[in-house]
């Protein structure tokens, strides 16, 4: 009986499972994913993530630039105590791209296996669970 | 901001740091009351403005702390938030009010209770609006990356970093306000469990509760109050962290270097004249890097400075004489104010069992705050203090 009552509560919208589309492009045709850089049409500054307005000239128009898929692992840490709600251990690091940009990202691979200045490449995978317990997929890096 | 007239510290207060069963307001009030009494202030209406630093305990923290002291309704009370820099920033704002002639007596307080409110076994993260936080960033891991890179570039070892904990805990041995103190060996530090590689548990500040408070006043008022040992605030600087997403040297610290430079310039006092420093030793690596960033030694010689005993009793500049955050723990909104309180006690020769000898005449404090992506830290607050008697 109660099944037939109209449900007035709006259906809870599922949390996004793909992290922000402004950041990461995963082409539908199976081509390699890439991070999206934003070049200010006013002053030419390239940023990741997208900053709006451009902090250098307050420009509001940008051109999307696919960023290099490979970079150098500047530094990293294997975390055994993490954020509330995140499974440990997990590793993250700073990756320096040839475009003179530094990306903070989780690293795919075993704790203890990373080295400073080694080559890493972009990959895509779960970084945490969202509010609904669904894995949140985003950019990560792994040994190239 | 160069101070436009002389500002003095009249009195200070601090609670013992550690795990408290009373909340931030009781801690803050206790430190404030102690500081007011030490300043010979006998009624709440003598204070003309109050700033209360806090990171995580909610809204209208300032009024909640000060209501039982009868201060609400008599003066503007403002809560100040800048994560780990909040307590220092609260003192800065009190100093600024006196310097600009807006007040003759002002109080800066830092207080925090974490342990009643935080899930055990988790690390501090910044707001979920930050792109790094979404990807799992925690403060322990971010400092660990600095350690990782420093060790990679310089060949420093885990044992080298551990010496910072050993030194600071030794400094705190007889300090009744410190939490973790006394003898600990390099081996015990290195072999404690890994929190964020390469940092182990004993290289990380404890998650603690506590408070500190500082009463500042004008030159005329410090005489009127009959303060015997006034401490001159020779400089008080707050800066925000440069923001960009390009590679930077994380074995340095742009915001600390800039804040220190400004403080030296405005106070007319250089690093070679500083007798004691309380700095942001939330993790061992931080103290080591900050020797260099503060100019206590040349770039690249931090480890030598430590090994040569220059940062302990008998050295060029005693760093973390109270024991630092590695001994006190780090209630984020409280530490900046508590550092100043502890430094004033050192300058007044009020630290039996942990007194720096000769009694320091010049002290410097330093706190950074906030892991915001694209910055090393969101905020940095520094103070330069000089005995004036």
Write a structural description.
- The complex is a heterodimer of chains A (144) and B (389).
- Chain A is mainly beta and 144 residues long.
- Chain A is 0% helix and 43% strand.
- In chain A, the strands form two sheets. In chain A, strands 5-6-7-9-8 form a five-stranded mixed β-barrel. In chain A, strands 1, 2, 3 and 4 form a four-stranded antiparallel sheet that branches.
- In chain A, a hairpin with a 5-residue loop joins strand 2 and strand 3.
- The termini of chain A are far apart.
- Chain B is of the alpha/beta class.
- Chain B has 13 helices and twelve strands.
- In chain B, strands 3-2-4-7-1-8-12-11-9-10 form a ten-stranded mixed sheet.
- In chain B, helix 2 links the parallel strand 2 and strand 3.
- Chain B is globular.
- Chain B starts with 6 loop residues before the first strand and ends with a strand.
- The interface between A and B is large, with 38 and 36 residues.
Q: What are the defining features of this structure?
A:
heterodimer; A: mainly beta; 5-stranded mixed β-barrel; 9 strands; 43% strand; B: 389 residues; alpha/beta; 10-stranded mixed β-sheet; 33% helix; 18% strand
């Amino acid at each position: 009986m109660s099944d037939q009552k109209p449900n007035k509560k709006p259906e809870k919208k599922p949390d996004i499972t793909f992290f922000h589309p402004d950041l990461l492009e995963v082409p539908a045709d199976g081509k390699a994913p890439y991070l999206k850089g934003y070049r200010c049409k006013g002053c030419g500054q390239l940023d990741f993530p997208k900053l709006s307005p451009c902090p250098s000239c307050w420009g509001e128009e940008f051109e999307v630039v696919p960023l290099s898929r490979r970079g150098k692992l500047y530094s990293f840490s294997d975390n055994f105590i993490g954020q509330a709600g995140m499974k440990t251990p997990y590793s993250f690091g700073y990756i320096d791209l040839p475009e003179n940009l530094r990306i903070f990202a989780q690293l795919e691979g075993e704790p203890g296996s990373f080295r400073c200045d080694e080559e890493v490449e972009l990959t895509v995978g779960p970084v945490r669970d969202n509010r609904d317990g669904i894995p949140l997929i985003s950019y990560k890096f792994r040994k190239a | 901001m160069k101070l436009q007239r002389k500002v003095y510290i009249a009195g200070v207060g601090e609670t013992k740091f550690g795990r408290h069963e009373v909340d931030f307001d009781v801690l803050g009030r206790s430190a404030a009351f102690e500081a007011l009494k030490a300043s010979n202030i006998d009624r709440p209406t003598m204070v003309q403005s109050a700033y209360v630093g806090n990171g995580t305990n909610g809204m209208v923290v300032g009024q909640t702390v000060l209501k039982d002291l009868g201060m609400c309704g008599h003066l503007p009370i403002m809560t100040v938030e800048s994560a780990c820099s909040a307590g220092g920033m609260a003192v800065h704002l009190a100093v600024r009010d006196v310097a600009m002639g807006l007040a003759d007596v002002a109080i800066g307080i830092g207080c925090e209770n974490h342990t009643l409110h935080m899930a055990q076994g988790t690390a501090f993260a910044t707001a979920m609006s930050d792109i790094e936080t979404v990807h799992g960033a925690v403060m322990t891991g971010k400092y660990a990356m600095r350690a990782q890179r420093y060790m990679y570039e310089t060949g420093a070892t885990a044992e080298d970093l551990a010496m910072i904990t050993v030194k600071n805990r030794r400094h705190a041995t007889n300090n009744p306000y410190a939490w973790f103190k006394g003898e600990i060996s390099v081996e015990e530090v290195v072999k404690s469990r890994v929190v964020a590689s390469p940092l182990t548990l004993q290289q990380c500040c404890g998650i603690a509760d506590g408070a500190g408070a500082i009463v500042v006043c004008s030159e005329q008022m410090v005489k009127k109050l009959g303060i015997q040992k006034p401490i001159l605030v020779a400089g008080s600087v707050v800066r925000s962290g440069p923001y960009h997403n390009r590679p930077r040297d994380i074995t340095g610290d742009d915001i600390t270097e800039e804040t220190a430079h400004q403080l030296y310039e405005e106070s007319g006092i250089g690093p070679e004249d500083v007798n004691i420093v309380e700095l942001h030793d939330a993790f061992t690596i931080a103290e080591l890097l900050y020797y260099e960033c503060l100019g206590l030694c040349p770039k690249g010689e931090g480890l030598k400075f430590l090994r040569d005993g220059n940062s302990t009793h008998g050295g060029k500049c005693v760093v973390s004489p109270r024991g630092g955050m590695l001994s006190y723990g780090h209630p984020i909104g409280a530490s900046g104010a508590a550092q100043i309180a502890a430094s004033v006690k050192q300058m007044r020769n009020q630290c039996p069992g942990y007194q720096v000898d000769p009694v320091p005449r010049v002290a410097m404090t330093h706190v950074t705050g906030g892991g915001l992506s694209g910055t090393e830290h969101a905020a940095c607050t520094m103070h330069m203090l000089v005995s004036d008697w």
